[in-house]
Write a structure and sequence with these properties.
By secondary structure, the chain is α+β, with helices and mostly antiparallel strands. The protein is 48% helix and 15% strand.
């Protein structure tokens, strides 16, 4: 038990001490701005078509916002939640091995150190984000906030990814 706690504490300390960009392996591809804009727009429109006013954010591999759109009639908090979901996905997804934030939330429920992760700035452990990959490397994340449930936010984020997936290098198709 003590060994498990020490290992868990060590992993958590490493995650806290490392900047987000250091957690993502170096790669030669970034998500072009026009594709980031298109993905965010599609995510907002996919939710709007279902009557859900949302915001969408696309962050790069370092967790820096590339695009953020606040949909018509979306409330102010959706701006922050969409960013925080995308940021959580791109910073924790590669470390813990998940491409959909809902998968990460489920994985982390079994981790006794997960509550500590939730105290880190900008981390939001709710479904609603997907990883954008190019040549099997995470290059961005799309986060959505404002639909009536993280699963619905995530479906709209996935719609944004699907809109651009065929224009990304091979492995950038739908999340695993």
């Amino acid at each position: 038990m003590r060994r498990t706690l020490r290992v868990g504490a060590g992993l958590l300390a490493g995650a806290i001490a490392s900047p987000a960009s250091a957690q993502v392996q170096a790669h030669d591809h970034t998500l072009p701005l026009d594709l980031a804009m298109e993905a965010a727009r599609e995510a907002v429109q996919a939710c709007a078509a279902r009557g859900w006013p949302v915001s969408a954010a696309v962050v790069d591999a370092g967790g820096v916002v590339r695009v953020q759109l606040k949909g018509d009639r979306s409330t102010i908090h959706t701006r922050d939640s969409s960013f925080r979901k995308a940021y959580t996905q791109i910073t924790l997804g590669p470390v813990f091995g998940f491409d959909r934030l809902s998968e990460g939330v489920e994985k982390l429920r079994a981790n006794p150190n997960a509550p500590a992760l939730a105290t880190l700035p900008d981390i939001l452990l709710l479904g609603g984000a997907v990883t954008v990959r190019a040549n099997d490397e995470p290059i961005a994340a799309i986060g959505v906030g404002g639909a009536p449930g993280g699963d619905k936010d995530e479906a709209c984020a996935a719609a944004g990814l699907a809109k651009i997936a065929d224009r990304l290098p091979s492995s950038a198709r739908a999340p695993r």
